[in-house]
Amino acid sequence: MPTAHEAGKQHTGPEEADQPPSMSSHAGAPAPPSRNPCCLCWCCCCSCSWSEGRRPAWRASGESKLQPLPSCEACTPSPEEAQSWAQSFDKLMHSPAGRSAFRAFLRTEYSEENMLFWLACEELKAEANQHVVDEKARLIYEDYVSILSPKEVSLDSRVREGINKKMQEPSAHTFDDAQLQIYTLMHRDSYPRFLSSPAYRALLLQGDPQSSHEA
Known about the structure:
Blueprint: H1 4-9, H2 49-65, H3 79-84, H4 89-94, H5 96-108, H6 112-125, H7 130-145, H8 157-166, H9 176-195, H10 198-205, H11 209-214
Helix pairs in contact: 2-7, 5-6, 6-7, 6-9
């Protein structure tokens, strides 16, 4: 039986989508300027010199610039705060401590990339500098949308097609549809299991005098 993570990795079947923009042929054409890609494929699966030269720079930049939003690794939520996370997934995701606890749980299910992608999209939407938006959008694509990435998130064909078109002129909202799809996936799939997990129950019991006496 496949694990929850493996199930989440399966892509849905083909769906109707608008035809992607036509790409100019490389045959017989002069090499494109180094500032522009030779194709519209941001997944870096082509063998063009532009992507080969830029990809290491993207990766190195991503390690320092696409860190998740500040988490709450060091802080411990009160039992009351932890209890509020069961009221709704929104409450959990709006709490730094909640995101940290949920991310740790996703790591045990080998689906931490879902939270990392969501956080990266939040960071992108807060960016106003277009140059930085372009760079971060390409990093997000390479890290979480490209089929070549080990951290690829599960998106349907319609959303992927939309991203491929938007990547011609990236904006802070290029991944909005994908972010919503992953948010929904975490809400419906991982969130109920998190609420039933020993880790979450431990957060509810910490600081409880009765549980301390029982221990």
